[in-house]
Here is the input.
Amino acid sequence: MTADPEDEFQILETTLEPGQWFAFRPPMMPGKLTNVHYGQKEELNIDTKVVEFKGFGNGFSNTLYFERRNGIWKLMKFEDLSD
Here is the structure.
């Protein structure tokens, strides 16, 4: 999900092809995670993870949902609910 560039009060929901992810991903610093959700348990055998990127005071809000399938992590859902 993301905001419709034609009408920012509408939300678009679609499925991305694997090669389209890089056009929609939020900016990330390679090799570094910051502002970790401290309440999330670190379980090695779990097959789902949620990563949130939020900007305090600027309306930025992205949520990424990952699943591990056959040992490989895959992005399953991306939500851009930024203002």
Summary: The helical segments are 21-24.
